[in-house]
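Extended Data, record Short-chain dehydrogenase
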Amino acid sequence: MHATGPKGTICVTASDLSVKENAWFAPCYAAAKAGLLHFVWTMAEKFEKDHHIRLCALCPARADTPLVQTGYFFETGPQCDTGTEPALTASEVAEAGMVLLEQPEKAGRAMLVESSGAIYALQFPTVNVHPIGSVKGTV
């Protein structure tokens, strides 16, 4: 990584709610957004320490964008979306993004913004592991 910014540089990435829910209608899109979120979680501390760049991820619920309006990634068009909540407006998503920009303690965090406008911090996922067997016959 060769990027270095002046102290206070912030990079807000755009992930979305598909990282939290089963996005069966757009698996490649959901995988890309999940990868972006994981990148922020794993690299935020290093970017801030080594490059003076604060990484954050904004994960809004369905937003009223041309992508959603046209049904581009929906199998059968927008009616495939089963959400009952109204879509967020671009202004609402931007307002939530300002929380990340204005609060330095959010470094390395991701924010989930629901259609209701509620904002939640997403914590780095922990993977629960438990033995199920062994290739050597013992656990």
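Summary. Residues 9-122 form a domain with the Rossmann fold fold (CATH 3.40.50.720).
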